[in-house]
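User: I'll paste a sequence; please echo it back and then give the predicted structure.

Assistant: Echoing your sequence first, then the prediction.
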Amino acid sequence: MEKLVMCLHRRPDAVYRLICFPWAGGGAFHFAQWSSLFNSSIEVYSLRFPGRESRVKDPCAQDMTTLVSDIVSSLLKELQEKPFAFFGHSFGSYVSFATAVHLKEKYGLQPVHLFMSGAYAPHSKSRPSVPPLKDVSDEELFSWINSLGGVPPEWLQREDAVKLLIPPVRTDLEVFQTFVCAEPKNVLSCDLTCFDGSEDLTHDLEEWKDVTSGETTIHELPGGHFFLLEPSNETFIIDYITKCIENADF
């Protein structure tokens, strides 16, 4: 578990866990910092996918099944211990959703709440088509991602960061491209919340209602694709997540 999870503030007496899934090419550090912003009832786990940060030598997952298996095999014991919720941004939304479905189908477990951020529903026909990754240069791929608003601000300021992050981004996009959810009708029963930026692409968030029989809520916050990095939005999201988790039925 230590390879997969970054947890900056261990809280063994916490009542709940929040598991955070990063965006394409992203690491664990940003969401790990959230742990200091939540109260003592919630312990935050931020996931580190293979091929980045301290797992840079681990082979990247080539498909969603492999990635979900890596997560579940490492976290199953912890997920069985106490109620948990998932938060995913962009690519992380799809990984968190796929993980939730796998847990319910195989182990009868599911989050008390799913929080999706900046993402189309997995079955949406509006999901963008990824360019042929084998035929696209790093520069072309970066430009394509940037055209969708999917480049974190720090990338634009550091050329060295782009060189380091493009390889895991390529792999994450391959996972995204091959992930198919053809029949999502009520595959889950937990409540679900979607967050989106007012200046981001339109993500047809209403379609997320198809994936669960629980209540679906939508919040639009000011900003582009990385609206969640704005301090005021981050505060809203963390306060909202706390209320939802603490009031969840389980």
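The chain has one domain: 5-246. The domain at 5-246 is CATH 3.40.50.1820 (Rossmann fold).
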